[in-house]
Write a structure and sequence with these properties.
This protein is an alpha+beta fold. It contains twelve helices and 21 strands. The strands form five sheets. It has a five-stranded mixed β-barrel with strand order 9-10-13-11-12. The chain has a five-stranded mixed sheet with strand order 18-17-19-20-21, sandwiched between helices. The longest helix is centred in the middle third of the chain and has 24 residues. It binds one RNA strand through strand 13 and helix 10.
Length: 415
RNA sequence: CGGGGUGUAGUGUAACGGCUAACAUUCCUGUUUUGGGAACAGGCGACUCAGGGUUCGAAUCCCUGCACCCCGACCA
């Protein structure tokens, strides 16, 4: 993409009404636009990051045998009444509205009920199980207080997957596989090493237990205790002697950390199936309830966490896996030769399928460098009268201080 | 939902109850510039969140509402 076509503008100053680092930077760099408190639009750069994250997640979900769908945002009240989760006393994040005829509808804050209800029409036999489905959806939650920029929003993108198994054993096999897949996802997203699988208490309606995936992050809302072996972490909410005893671990081997919950997985059991009537016939023709699991990843929250974790005083710094572009091609100087060279390079890169943001704007170098640092694409390549004179390209990595002059061939090899 | 704070050009800030609401930046014009947010000159852009009140006079004081931020509670 030519930067001259990018309608978003970078700002020198952070908006006064944002305190969180992630929102300040993402707004300054033109990745998101705030609509109302806790509601942000995704601008071209932000959308590209979100799409990168989605792609990485999709790949792993598909490897698990899950298929993608999109459930509706407007939801049927009756389904939620069956499981007693329609009332505002039971679920306090509902956005609700009404049809012209007066019938109430809900805006999806979760899709557990509708998707499980939908599965009734497609599941009848043990031969048809297990089934795994996932979606990327805008979830709407009427949070009493949105906070921390895009970390705690009223509207946000979430990947949610649901598993439908014949029994607990089949479920647990999958649950464990998801755990591995999730770790792979966070590794592939660039958050490996600082993301822990964390034991936490089940939610109000879970029969069994849950695991959270927590990324160390000062802006996070969760407090966790990380074991020194790095493999075990406990959420503060279950941090007590009983838990430690059960796990046979010592208190002093843990370290307290602030973290952001980027994913969670739940074992639901058969309760919801029984309520909603999701049954199957087993090999003996007996009717049995389907065993459920639910698996979420906060997609837009991940963007916020990544922004927070890797940013420096100059701006954002994306891991290459989720960067909006692979390379930022910056043209300096005004000579026709340089212009032609940069244009050609841009076209070549595009032809090769390299995702390139081409700063073809006629601005002074300082401004271009500042923008480049702020946007945070991991590789910057500068083409100027100076580099052209020695037939080289200047390459600078966003997370390194020094730039280097490389032959054109060498530079292209990096990509 | 309890508590606190803030609302002034697109953005960031200023202005004692008193002149045409100022400065910087963005944006537009021109000239000169071109390796770390350039210089000069000129210009556009604000009924000071909304409504009411006090006052000779309100961005400024008071009331109500709304919006936004923060702390707490909540958080599948």
């Amino acid at each position: 993409m030519r930067q001259s076509q990018l309608f978003t503008k970078t700002r020198k100053e952070a908006p006064a009404d944002e305190v969180s680092k992630n929102a300040q930077l993402l707004i300054k760099a033109g990745f998101i636009h705030k609509e109302i408190a806790g509601v942000y639009s995704l601008l071209p750069l932000g959308l590209r990051v979100v799409n990168k994250i989605k792609k990485i997640i999709s790949t792993e979900m598909e490897a698990l045998g899950s298929v993608e769908i999109i459930m509706s945002t407007l939801q049927n009240k009756e389904i939620w009444e069956i499981t007693d989760r329609w009332s505002d006393e039971k679920v306090d994040v509902w956005f609700k509205s009404a049809l012209k005829n007066g019938n109430e509808v809900g805006f999806g804050w979760s899709h557990e009920e509708p998707i499980t209800n939908m599965m009734k029409f497609h599941t009848g036999s043990y031969n048809e199980l297990p089934r795994y489905v996932h979606q990327f959806q805008n979830k709407l939650r009427n949070e009493v207080r949105a906070k921390s920029g895009i970390m705690r929003c009223r509207e946000f993108v979430m990947k949610d997957m649901y598993s439908y198994s014949v029994d607990e054993k089949q479920h647990m096999d999958f649950y464990n596989k998801v755990t591995e897949s999730y770790m792979k996802v966070f590794n592939n997203i660039g958050l490996g090493g600082i993301t822990y699988i964390t034991s936490a208490s089940g939610g109000l309606f879970t029969e069994k237990f849950s695991h959270e995936f927590q990324t160390l992050c000062e802006a996070g809302e969760d407090n966790i205790y990380v074991h020194k072996d790095g493999k075990l972490a406990l959420n503060e909410e279950i941090w007590n002697d009983e838990t430690l005893e059960k796990l046979a671990v010592k208190k002093e081997d843990f370290e307290f950390k602030k973290a952001a919950e980027v994913g969670n997985i739940f074992t639901f059991g058969t309760g919801k199936s029984e309520q909603l009537g999701l049954f199957f016939n087993d090999s003996e023709g007996k009717k049995r309830p389907v065993f459920l699991g639910s698996y979420g990843i906060g997609v837009t929250r991940l963007m916020g966490v990544i922004a927070e974790v890797f940013a420096d005083e100059k701006g954002l710094s994306w891991p290459k896996e989720v960067s909006p572009f692979a390379v930022h091609l910056v043209r300096l100087g005004v000579s026709n030769e340089t212009l032609e060279f940069a244009d050609n390079m841009y076209n070549d890169l595009q032809k090769k399928g390299v995702e390139v943001l081409y700063d073809d704007r006629d601005l002074r170098p300082g401004e271009k460098f500042a923008d480049s640092d702020l946007i945070g694409i991991p590789v910057r390549m500068v083409v100027s009268d100076k580099t052209l004179a020695v037939n080289k390209i200047e390459v600078k990595f966003r997370n390194k201080a020094e730039a280097e002059l490389l032959d054109i061939e060498e530079a292209l090899k990096i990509l």
